[in-house]
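JOB MANIFEST
job_type = single_chain_structure
chain_count = 1
residues = 488
[input]
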Amino acid sequence: MFKSYNFFFFIVIWVLSCNQAENIKIADGKVEGSLSKHTGVTTKMVKLARAKTSLGLNDLYILAVEQTERIAIKEEALTQAKAQKHIAIASWIPSLSFRHNRNYTIPNHDTHDREVRNRDNLVNAILNPTPQAGTTTTTSSTISQLNPSALPGDMLQLTVPVMTGLNEYSAFKNAKELINVRRYEAEFEAARLYLELAQLYFTILQIERSIKVKKDIQKITKGIVRELKRRVRLGKSRKSELLNAQSQFARVEADLLKTEDNLQTQRASLATKTGVNPNTPLIEPEEWKSSSLSLEQALKKVEERADVKAAEYSMKVADSNLTKAWGGHLPTISLNSYYRLPRHNVPHNKDIFTQFVVQIPLLSAGTITASVKQAESAKRQAELTLSQTKRMAVEDVQTAYKGYKNSKGVLSAYREALDAAELSHRVQKQDYSQQLSTTLDLFNSLNSLHNAKNDYNTVLLQKELNRIWLGVATGEIPERKSDSKGDD
């Protein structure tokens, strides 16, 4: 008896523990342990990032993990999958319930209620015979046609599932594979978030560098206009040159305003994702360690990508659903036991009524066959999704790898173009001061220098972005720790 009570309490404690899950909250300054495992971000990292006056890419990612809902949504889906697993395990365990039956008849309550009471008394007399004087009774296991579940009164019902097709097995296997699906989906979402932040971060840096160049050009152009006005008054320059310079100056100012407006838009988007002030300064990016992977080595990483693993486990989920559908053809077996509780002024029968129920599906109007066909189609769909996911992952790795390798050579070429543009502009300025070239020549050299600086800065930042893209595509970035905890 003592062992039975221990087992009962173990089941109760296990069920209660299954209902306990982390309550994930957004923008509360804390990173729950489950989110930490998928992102590598901890609460301590969030506190350090919030204390900084200027932020880098990793700081933005840390704040975005704590601020946005996208990874938390995936984590909630993982929690639901774990709950499904607990439900599947619990379906193997017998269930005990209390039942109270009372019969009512309508209309003519008085007459029919009296008939019901008479019938109940008759049934109770049959189930609970009163021993005659001088006789003895013995309790033995018998087969009775009267099911206590249909009789009035209170009773305890114990249900023991023996076999219900393949429902329990399939549900457990389904939930187990679904947990893996949700876990890898959360990891993939974290990687996508990091890449999106990197694209936004480098875009803002590129715009800020472009604004700096445009302001330099604006300052130089303003000085040229001022000098031309003086020369026109002295009769040393034509008025057409002044008008051309003023037109160029107006164009530079308009372009500068447009670029600054674009910067505000990009910064507003960054503030939405991370919760930082839109005017928070961004630090210059640290150069990532050069990747030593060959293309063949990078492509081998595809099999370990989070999206590919999620698709693989999704196919296993579809396979378990197919097993469950086929199980509909099998019989279901259950064992039900009833124990009637004592009633006032009614003889008490202490026998336990037991039902052994076997149900064999004979005719289901094609529902089982249709369920099998549906599950087979879902499995084929999962196989196609896995194939598509792998193909897209291969394409992603190839594009990132080639972009990163090509950007190195392109950067060197643009460096040479920038040096040439700087030399050309110096020569044009010298010639213009000696009246050996026109204002138009000077403006052309200035525009060439502006374009060369913008192109070089763009390619330089793109090279760093391509390195991050390659790291995300191969699963190297962001870094995760399997033992990360939110309170660290």
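[summary]
The domain at 2-93+168-324+368-473 is CATH 1.20.1600.10 (Outer membrane efflux proteins (OEP)).
The beta strands are 95-101, 153-164, 332-340, 352-359.
exit_status = 0
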